[in-house]
Each structure stands twice: as structure tokens, then as C-alpha cells.
Amino acid sequence: MGGKKLYINHDLIREKITDIEKALALLDQIALTPEQDFLEDQILISGAKYQFVLSIEAAQNICNHLAARVAREAPDSYADCFRILGKSRIISQELAQKMVSMAKFRNLLVHQYGKVDDSIVYRIMKNDTGDLIRYIQEIKLFLRTVSEKERKDGKGKTTDDGCREKEG
């Protein structure tokens, strides 16, 4: 990161965090359905898969932005982007590995839709959406850290979530 000024698009990150939160809220609602009922309802299955794709792609958009602006690296793949964030200490290594798995799950949903075991979708929906919540938390913590540094340097006003307010 050195002495170069970082331009992080806080508005983009805020928008993508909101996208993740909306998708997770819908997944939480779907997850209230008993497993057998879920597995017999193609509309719920399709909805859950779509919300996973939306939420993971929003996480990916944040990842690509931070990899380019902060780590100054271009990822080779969806999964590689999260490795870069972990390596750059933007998110923890442990979370980076979980997000790599999420990226692979997204690829499976997008590229092999008919081959996805719906009971696995249900299990992930019930047990693993916390990784996306943790991702949001770690991204916000990183942004707060960057904003505090900018504030100390006299370069801007920030909101409570660590995102800098638009100037002007």
C-alpha cells in the first residue's frame, strides 16, 4: 500500500454489501422450510440457487475492486480473488479459504446447474451463509481501518460502517 493514495469506491462496496444482505435475508426465509418440502419445491430450489449466485457475485465484485485498488493484483479466477484478499490481509486467511469454497460453489451453480445436488444447496443455506456475513464484517473492519488512517492524515469523513461519505 505504501504512500500512494488508495481510491476505494465506498459507494460500490456499500451497494454490494446491501445486495449480499438482501440475498441472505431471502435465503434465511427459504431456510425456514423443512428440508423435504424444500427438495420437493422447484421454485424454492431455484430461488435459493439464484440468491446464492447473487450474493457470491456481489462478494466477488467487492473482492475484485479491493484486489485491484488495494492489493494491486488481478485475480486469475473467482477463487483466486479471495486468496489475494487473504494474502493481503484485507480478510483473514481462514475466511479467504471459505470464500474460495463459496466461489467454487457459485461456479458449480452457474456452469453445472442441473448437476447440483439440491440437498447440498439446502445444507449450505442452513449452515454456511455465516461465511458471507463474516465477509461483510471483515470488509467493513478493513474499510474502517483505512478510513481511520485517512482521517488521521486529514483526508475525509467516514460513516460508522467505515465507508467514506461522498464529498461535495
UniProtKB/TrEMBL annotation:
GO cellular component assignments: toxin-antitoxin complex
Protein's UniProt name: Uncharacterized conserved protein YutE, UPF0331/DUF86 family
Organism the protein comes from: Desulfofundulus thermosubterraneus DSM 16057
Molecular-function GO terms, alphabetical: hydrolase activity; RNA nuclease activity
UniProt xrefs under InterPro entries: HepT-like, HepT-like_sf, Type_VII_TA_RNase
Keyword field: Hydrolase, Nuclease, Toxin-antitoxin system
Keyword Nuclease tagged: yes
Family, similarity comment: Belongs to the HepT RNase toxin family.
